[in-house]
């Protein structure tokens, strides 16, 4: 299964970009990143079938690392070809996008800068795929 991060805004260079790249490079699964302009312009590749779109949204489920890994495993085992994680524009996702999404994921009630959300998402995807590979990256208490 391919993991695909679609993000509004360009990450450029800097500490956030380096941290994001560090985690993305460690993920053993295929990973793609698509950047859209802040206005939403840009070409996002068509979704393969079957796929799931996950919106990063403050109203979403706040999953533990283990729960995210379990969800990825379930999608993979159900034949999902791509899990697309969408980091929305500054004003967030609209009601129609939320309703059409396969899942909503939240990193808590705080407002996070988009660049940090990318790094946090990349780290959580790395952690989840490491858990699924049996690596002891995560320490269950």
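Sequence proposed for the structure above (141 residues):
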């Amino acid at each position: 299964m391919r993991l695909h991060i679609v993000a509004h805004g360009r990450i450029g260079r800097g500490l956030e970009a380096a941290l994001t790249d560090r985690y993305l490079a460690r993920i053993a699964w295929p990973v793609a990143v698509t950047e859209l302009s802040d206005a939403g312009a840009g070409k996002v590749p068509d979704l393969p079938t079957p796929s799931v779109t996950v919106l990063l949204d403050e109203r979403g489920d706040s999953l533990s690392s283990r729960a995210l890994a379990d969800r990825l495993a379930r999608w993979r085992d159900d034949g999902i070809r791509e899990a697309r994680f969408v980091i929305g524009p500054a004003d967030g996702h609209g009601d129609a996008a939320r309703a059409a999404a396969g899942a909503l994921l939240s990193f808590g009630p705080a407002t996070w800068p988009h660049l940090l959300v990318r790094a946090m998402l990349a780290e959580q995807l790395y952690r989840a795929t490491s858990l699924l590979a049996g690596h002891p990256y995560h320490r269950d208490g």
